[in-house]
Amino acid sequence: MPEEQKKKVNNYYYIIAGAVVAIMIVLAIYFVAGSSSAQTVVAGDNVSVDYVGTFTNGTVFSSNFNSTPLNFTAGSNQLIPGFSNAVIGMHVGQTKNISLPPKDAYGYPNSSKVITVPISDFGNRTVKPNTIVTSASGQQGIIESVNSTSAVINLNSPLAGKTLDFEIKLLTVKK
How many helices (H) and strands (E) would you count in the chain? Predict the structure, then answer.
């Protein structure tokens, strides 16, 4: 085969090889983009996360790292609204830091949730301040003060009125 014809054949091989490489790159981008968007959280997705919750001073109040992942439906009312909505738009493997004011967390303390209960309602149990109690309906509260006839019980969440910081790592998304 003459030299010039060999050059033309080699050029065709290069063109074909280049086209194949370009097609492979386009396919790789398509599949990577497609799979990552499929793993982006939208409201209604079931997600698993690891998290650590801290007060603004850095004190940890809750964490599940090195434990069982927290599973919930994104954007639902299963958790505090700020946390549940924070995962929307996240990708698997992403970590996000958020700060939730009381309105997006446990709300503000409500004075109507501070009640006075007669000591006789406790039967023979010892009644003393800072004791956690549970009502017949399952509501928990903490005894704030006690006198000879009654106890004052606060049924607000201990986290009410507090700004809460969270580090959230998205582990899985199920559509």
Answer: 2, 9
Q: What's the rounded Cα separation, in Å, for the pair 35 and 72?
A: 22
Q: What is the pLDDT of residues 64-94, one digit of tens each?
A: 999 999 999 999 999 999 999 999 999 999 9
The CA distance from 134 to 84, in Å, is 27
CB atoms within 10 A of CB 130: 8
Report how far Cα 138 is from the mean position of its chain's Cα atoms: 25
Residue 171 has pLDDT above 60, yes or no: yes
Confidence of residue 108 (pLDDT cuts 50, 70, 90): very high
109-134: per-residue pLDDT in tens? 999 999 999 999 999 988 999 999 99
Q: Is a pLDDT exceeding 60 seen at residue 160?
A: yes
Determine the topology of domain 46-107+160-174 in CATH: Chitinase A; domain 3 (3.10.50)
CA dihedral (36, 39, 43, 48) positive or negative: negative
Q: Does 46-107+160-174 match 111-154 in CATH topology?
A: no
Architecture of domain 111-154: Beta Barrel (2.40)
Exposure string over 75-93, b if 16+ CB within 10 A, otherwise e: beeebbebbbbbbeebebe
